[in-house]
Here is the input.
Amino acid sequence: AKRCAVCHSFDKDGANKIGPNLWNIVGAPTAHREDFKYSEAMAGFNKTWGYAERDAYLTAPKEYVPGNKMAFAGLKKEAERENVIAYLKSGGE
Here is the structure.
């Protein structure tokens, strides 16, 4: 998740950066942080960040949610995505 930390924080009370704070994101609704301005595409996505959704998004963010403003191209290696999702599920501990 070090690459993610450039744009996101992971702490319980962490501030948003370029992207929203990702603490407790797995199992949460998409675009749920009231203190972050999401793109229209993400705000209208209306899903829950389960494993499959998070994996698909991390694989190709622009394809999974067309029009979202995240500039990250994605993680092509399944093991990398699994590690990031495990970290997010752990609460960043």
In short: The longest helix spans residues 78-89. DSSP finds four helices and no strands in the chain.
